[in-house]
């Protein structure tokens, strides 16, 4: 897009970007510094000072005594059930909306989009009553149901957008080869949609891993706490062990960071794809 | 006959869950917003629109919360979107290390609001925190503050953390939008002697229109729904100065058991989000027909 950039402009350009990048990284650097210090070190020296000695044992303490291992396991369990199941359900719906002869396809799609307008807050009390009534309050099936529900509008939007770009000629070829609709879904549409599905897996994993409000309302059992609830438990009412808290924060961030670094391409493509709709 | 039913079968699981989790509960909370109820008593008292009237005329915190959401929205539209666009323009050039920069500016977006809140609460810590320590270091002790405990600053302090977290989203959307603009109009403009500003104003901005539509919509809705970060950094305090609609709804409903009032707050939220989203949904579905 740029035709010519003079070299001084280029230097200024880089300088601005580098300064901003450092500012963006600062909070993480300081969390790391805090996480590897001893409490005495933290109290006696300013936060920006390099740690006198690296105390990796803070991570072990956060993992064991801080129960991070349990919070991670709980959250991972929810992710492993919710994400694939949600995508399957959303893909089936998106398939009906794009590949089957369906008069209601556009009204139904708009109806699903309305869900994006509804803030979770507007559903919490009735959902709580519902779960009580059907005895699923505080159980994993109840939690899956609710998490699945809030993923549906976005999932359908992304998958429908992608399914539409798959050429219709393939459907005709499948028909000639005697493929049923389910066969078409499983053998043609799903495999061809792997880029969109990968994007959705990553977004959904991230959203589920980071979920807070639903967990706060619907998970009361301490042994079922997810990461976000567990992290808040590191903050005491009167005093907080900041070294332990920082170690816990870093542990909780690690899986998301790994997923992010491995699949950065999909994040960007996915967001860009949602623009094109 | 069967072909008519078939699409519904594929749609059924999603539809049932969607109706159960989102549609019926949200309508039911609209119904509840017309009652006075503590959530456990067997009888609810029908009060019509009184809960809404109370919020807008008598409640002392609701106006603060609403104004905080609107300030948050304005701040997001100006600062978050502005910074996102500026960074996208800087990264759009064929720049070395572009992926790295994009990765750095985007990564806070993958963190949870709770993580961001905990990191920044620690940075704002009055005695050991980063901000005050750095101010002391450069000889500005008089500027040190209990940032999150001072009603004048608390909302802005929380917003700064949210800005750090959120700027990646408009950034990535703008980068995608910019990369879809071809080179030709710029070349033509260059040959015609257009200034940089002119090409930006007359070529880039109009061609980014669709991106702006989606960024403005998502930014405004994000600003109305903001919850985790406020709840975890200030809990709406000090003196209710950082309360937003979502957090107020949480406290009214789940702490004070004012189900009617809480439901009314959540429906004020729904209505505001609808005002933003209806034109947006209309625009996108209309576009996808053609």
Please provide the ordered H/E string of secondary-structure elements of chain A: HHHHHHHHHHHHHH
Question: Approximately how much beta-strand content do the residues of chain B carry?
Answer: under 5%
- Tell me the major beta sheet of chain B: 2 strands, antiparallel
Per CATH, the superfamily of the largest domain in chain A is MetI-like
Taking strands numbered 1, 2, ... along the chain, how are they ordered across the largest sheet of chain B?
Answer: 1-2
CATH class of chain B: Mainly Alpha
From the helix content, strand content and strand pairing of chain B, which structural class follows? mainly alpha
Structural category of chain A is: mainly alpha
Helix fraction of chain B?
Answer: over 70%
Protein name (chain B): ABC transporter permease protein YurN
Organism (chain B): Paenibacillus montaniterrae
Keywords (chain B): Cell membrane, Membrane, Transmembrane, Transmembrane helix, Transport
InterPro entries (chain B): ABC_transporter_permease (IPR051393), MetI-like (IPR000515), MetI-like_sf (IPR035906)
């Amino acid at each position: 897009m740029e035709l010519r950039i003079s070299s001084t402009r280029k230097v200024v350009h880089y300088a601005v970007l580098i300064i901003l990048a450092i500012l963006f990284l600062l909070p993480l650097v300081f969390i790391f510094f805090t996480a590897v210090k001893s409490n005495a070190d933290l109290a006696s020296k300013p936060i920006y000072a390099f740690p006198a000695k690296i105390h990796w044992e803070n991570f072990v303490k956060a993992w064991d005594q801080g129960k991070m291992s349990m919070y991670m396991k709980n959250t991972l369990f929810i992710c492993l059930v919710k994400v694939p199941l949600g995508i399957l359900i959303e893909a089936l719906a998106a398939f009906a909306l794009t590949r089957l002869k369906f008069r209601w396809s556009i009204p139904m799609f708009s109806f699903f989009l309305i869900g994006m307008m509804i803030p979770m807050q507007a559903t919490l009390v009735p959902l709580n009553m519902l779960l009580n009534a059907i005895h699923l309050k505080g159980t994993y099936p109840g939690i899956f149901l609710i998490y699945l529900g809030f993923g549906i509008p976005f999932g359908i939007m992304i998958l429908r957008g992608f399914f539409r770009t798959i050429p219709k000629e393939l459907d005709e070829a499948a028909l000639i080869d005697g493929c049923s609709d389910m066969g078409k879904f499983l053998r043609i549409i799903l495999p061809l949609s792997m880029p969109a599905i990968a994007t959705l897996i990553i977004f959904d994993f991230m959203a589920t891993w980071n979920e807070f409000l639903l967990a706060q309302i619907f998970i009361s059992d301490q042994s079922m706490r997810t990461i976000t609830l567990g992290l808040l438990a590191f903050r005491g009412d009167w005093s907080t062990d900041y070294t332990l808290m920082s170690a816990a924060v870093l542990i909780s961030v690690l899986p998301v960071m790994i997923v992010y670094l491995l699949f950065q391409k999909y994040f960007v493509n996915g967001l860009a794809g949602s623009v094109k709709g | 006959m069967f072909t008519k039913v078939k699409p519904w079968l594929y749609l059924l699981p999603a539809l049932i869950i969607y109706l159960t989790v989102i549609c019926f509960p949200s309508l039911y909370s609209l119904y509840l917003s017309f009652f006075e109820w503590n959530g456990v008593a067997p009888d609810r008292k029908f009060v019509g629109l009184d809960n809404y009237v109370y919020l807008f005329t008598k409640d002392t915190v609701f106006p603060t919360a609403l104004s905080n959401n609107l300030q948050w929205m304005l701040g997001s539209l100006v600062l978050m979107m502005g910074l996102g666009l500026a960074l996208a323009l800087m990264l759009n050039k064929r720049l070395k290390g572009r992926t790295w920069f994009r990765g750095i500016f985007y990564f806070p977006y993958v963190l949870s609001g709770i993580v961001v809140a905990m990191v920044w609460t620690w940075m704002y810590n009055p005695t050991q925190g980063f901000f005050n320590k750095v101010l002391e270091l450069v000889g500005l002790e008089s500027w040190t503050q209990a940032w999150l405990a001072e009603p004048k600053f608390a909302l802005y302090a929380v917003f700064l953390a949210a800005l750090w977290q959120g700027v990646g989203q408009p950034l990535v959307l703008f980068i995608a939008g910019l990369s879809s603009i071809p080179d030709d109009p710029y070349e033509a403009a260059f040959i015609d002697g257009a200034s940089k500003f002119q090409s930006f104003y007359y070529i880039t901005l109009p061609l980014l229109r669709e991106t702006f539509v989606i960024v403005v919509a998502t930014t405004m809705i994000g600003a109305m729904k903001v919850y985790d970060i406020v709840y975890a950094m200030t809990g709406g305090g000090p003196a209710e100065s950082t309360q937003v609609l979502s957090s107020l709804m949480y406290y009214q409903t789940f702490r004070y058991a004012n189900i009617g009032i809480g439901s009314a707050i959540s429906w004020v939220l729904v209505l505001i989000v609808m005002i933003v989203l209806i034109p947006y949904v209309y625009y996108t579905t209309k576009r996808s027909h053609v």
